[in-house]
Design goal:
DNA-binding; 3-stranded antiparallel beta sheet; homodimer; 9 helices; Arc Repressor Mutant, subunit A
DNA sequence: CTTTGTGAAATTTTTCACAGCG
DNA sequence: CGCTGTGAAAAATTTCACAAAG
């Protein structure tokens, strides 16, 4: 058991699941459940019991053998790994429909984020208020970064502006970008970019529907040399 | 070349990239470029030349050695693999801010999708028009599925309603769901579900910022027994 | 000479299986 | 017993390296 909690390299797929466990655990917490087994957790989070345990092994084990995991303890451990207890500032770039919808998303607070700014390069949008926050011009971003220490931004701008906006974010000192633009954005130096590709996901879904997921045994057979 | 174009099992990561190549190719097409190398394509799509070639090998090779890929031919091949040439119907479930923003997303048409319906279980929202489409009550969904042959839906409902809505979609006869809810949705029988987890992505970004991508050695030291 | 197509190696991630603790 | 923690096996994916084609 020695290797747990070394806290070194958590695989990305694990990170993606860690957040889902958190969501499930919060629900269990509200339902006043005290313990949960890896099987139940896997079931509710859409993964597998073994994978749940493996995932937890990356950041320290909090389970009791024969019983399961203590819901609160596990939640605390997860929050310690994923996010700090203090709210993390966050800005949204782009005050179009998507930026507006995201600004209205109440879930950020629950997750420990605090929306501290909304920026748009279109002067016509500057000055409007979304969720009590005044939309500022993009050229005010650097000052806001310095002022709030914000590191993360959601990029909700049209494809044509995405790279430009990402570069501005990088220059302003932001460190992480979550882009909704349906184009690949090259990461500015020192910036980590993740893409949220709606249309790409639709295409995958569509393809998988087209072939391969008709209920029943998979009709694989065409096994050429490969 | 023998094994290519069997068209059977394309890995999911490849599918995700295929769409990005499509985006780049369309751009090149507009710029009247006739050929493109795997290196260039990889660069613009955010992957690697070797991976580009490997990806294409799954669905047939269209490249000319020494030259590259014919932009139009490749685009046609991709569109043939990913989506059909006729528009695919699509519905949005949930007419809240996110559903509204998505309804306004002009990119769907470009990708060959046609938004044929918006549904909401809240009677207060029924009757409004988004992008020229009347919001209908969720209980009209089954009829719409039969009428349009739609298979895909985007789920833009609150977490608390997500599972319920997914089940309704399944019963209505939909086959693929793209969910924006920040909870895991169990796939109803015969339905393929993909999740678009905004907060999860933010958490990953935040974690990767916290540790691992500061240039230089990681400042971990706490190496407990576990 | 350039660039593709592709086996084979390397790497990453998941699944398995079971020892060990409560 | 039941359930966790974890090495080892398996599977999936990416990277490498190079032969073959234009």
């Amino acid at each position: 058991m020695g290797s747990a909690s070394n806290g070194r390299k958590i695989p990305e797929p694990t990170l993606a699941r860690l957040h889902r466990y958190q969501v499930v655990l919060r629900k269990l917490c509200r339902a006043h459940e005290t313990t949960v087994s890896s099987e139940r957790l896997g079931d509710e989070a859409g993964t597998d019991a073994a994978l749940v345990r493996k995932d937890f092994s990356y950041f320290g084990c909090v389970g009791q053998r024969g019983v399961g995991y203590e819901v609160e303890g596990l939640l605390a451990a997860l929050q310690g790994t994923l996010g700090p207890s203090e709210p993390r500032p966050l800005v949204i770039i782009g005050a179009g429909p998507l930026g507006t919808a995201l600004a209205g998303y109440a879930g950020f607070e629950m997750l420990g984020y605090e929306l501290v700014g909304i920026f748009d390069s279109n002067p016509a949008r500057v000055g409007h208020h979304l969720r009590g926050i005044r939309v500022r011009h993009t050229n005010e971003l650097p000052a806001a970064v310095v002022g709030t220490g914000v590191q993360l931004a959601i990029l909700a701008v049209p494809a044509a502006r995405a790279q430009e906006a990402a570069d501005q974010c990088g220059q302003a000192g932001l460190r992480g970008l979550l882009s909704f633009a349906p184009v690949h954005v090259k990461a500015p130096p020192g910036v980590k970019v993740r893409q949220m590709d709606v249309s790409g996901e639709l295409e995958i879904l569509n393809y998988q529907l087209k072939c391969g997921m008709t209920a029943g045994p998979l009709p694989f057979g065409t096994n050429s040399t490969g």
